[in-house]
Specification:
elongated; mainly alpha
């Protein structure tokens, strides 16, 4: 049996976003901060009350009841809010025996979160602000956690979220599911936000492993939520879920006991989550239905091949061909670098060096690390020089440690 110190953080992560989206749906997106304040106050009351009286038999129902009462209290206390919002809520007088229509059923929670997801993934606000709002409103992350994830401070994050909310208010974005055509138009942006949210966790430079893993879990949850709605249960949605499953399966193997990053080739396959790999295969198979091939399909197929530890030229040739397709579909310098590494593994350093020299010089450690890797054993002094450049450009201690080992190995 959990005590209140263990239970409340668990419930906060699980229920905060549900309660905010339901109350936010009732009040409207322009009053989302009020919903956040009400729910935060509800958890504060829980902390104080449960510490004295003990945990109630049904903690979740207790939270929902208090949140409902706090919402009513706010409406009665704030005259301006009550006059502007109250009538729209059809809030009946107590004499009529009616109560506030806060529906915390699982169906309404799911619908509200889906509507909120489409509302905040709006191209009128920057991508990083969309991720921040998703973390706060849909995933229940605190401002401190978001600041940690972005290697920033609370003041900067609060300002970023405030500006994002203001833009949504000015645009009068509504908390409702868009029409079928608008869903089609907006889904790519929603999927991209989830993709970025996952990457923010998976490739994050923060040392907080629990926070990073929680971000990945929440991104995966949002993806699965989309797959449960008929109009968003499309091949590219399932391909993104597959991609996240494959990457998540290696999460525990990517970091050693000393918090040092463990490269793919050195990972202990026994630490890979076989169930997540199985789920990844299932979602990838589902995504194959239809004629569309998205970048998520190609990235998921590459990640699937990485879920098999064998290091054969045939495997890397298959990965190389997928990168060739991905470059044609969605070119980026990072994909070009990865494609060159796959070429090296499939066909050797000589052919990869020719391709690497064609790449535009990039002012990041990944580019020079690749060059160092390719020239190792061919021109060790040149390889060492490239690794040293990479070391200078690396931004995290983990990356510097990995590059230092490469320098020592020459």
């Amino acid at each position: 049996m959990q005590n209140e110190k263990e239970l409340i953080p668990h419930l906060f992560r699980r229920e905060f976003s549900k309660m905010v989206t339901v109350i936010g749906k009732l009040f409207g997106l322009q009053h989302i901060e009020v919903a956040e304040d009400i729910v935060s106050e509800t958890f504060l009351i829980a902390t104080e009350t449960w510490g004295i009286k003990g945990i109630p038999p049904n903690p979740t129902a207790w939270l929902y009841t208090v949140a409902k009462n706090k919402t009513l209290e706010y409406l009665r206390r704030d005259k301006v809010f009550a006059e502007k919002v109250g009538p729209a809520l059809a809030l009946a007088e107590e004499s009529n025996g009616q109560t506030l229509a806060l529906d915390f059923s699982s169906q309404n929670i799911n619908d509200s979160q889906l509507q909120m997801l489409f509302a905040i993934c709006n191209p009128i606000i920057p991508a990083e602000a969309q991720i921040g709002l998703a973390l706060r409103i849909l995933c229940g992350f605190g401002i401190d956690e978001i600041a940690d994830a972005f290697l920033s401070n609370k003041e900067t994050i609060n300002k970023r979220l405030y500006r994002a909310r203001e833009k949504l208010r000015e645009a009068k974005v509504k908390l409702e599911m868009p029409g079928e055509q608008e869903i089609s138009n907006r889904l790519d942006n929603v999927l991209h936000t989830i993709y970025l949210l996952f990457n923010e966790g998976y490739y994050s430079t923060t040392q907080n492993k629990v926070l990073r893993q929680d971000m990945c879990v929440e991104a995966l949850r949002l993806g699965v939520m989309l797959s449960g709605y008929e109009k968003t249960n499309l091949p590219k949605t399932n391909a993104l879920i597959a991609l996240m499953c494959f990457h998540s399966s290696r999460f525990n193997a990517r970091q050693g006991s000393d918090n040092a990053m463990v490269l793919y080739a050195d990972q202990d396959e026994a630490l890979w989550d076989k169930e997540l790999i199985r789920q990844g295969n299932r979602y990838l198979n589902i995504s194959a239905k239809g004629n569309e091939i998205s970048s998520y399909h190609l990235e998921a197929a590459i990640a699937q091949l990485h879920s098999k530890k064998d290091d054969t030229p045939e495997k890397w040739e298959a990965i190389l061909q997928l990168y060739n397709m991905l470059l044609q579909l969605n070119y980026s310098p990072a994909v070009a670098l990865n494609r060159t590494f796959a070429l090296y593994k499939a066909r050797g350093a000589a052919e990869a060096i020719v391709e690497a020299e064609k790449l535009p010089t990039q002012n990041n450690h990944f580019y020079f690390t690749l060059l160092g890797e390719l020239y190792k054993g061919i021109d060790n002094q040149y390889a060492k020089t490239q690794f040293e450049k990479a070391y200078t450009l690396a931004k995290t201690q983990n990356d510097k440690d990995v590059i230092r080992l490469k320098i020592k190995s020459i």
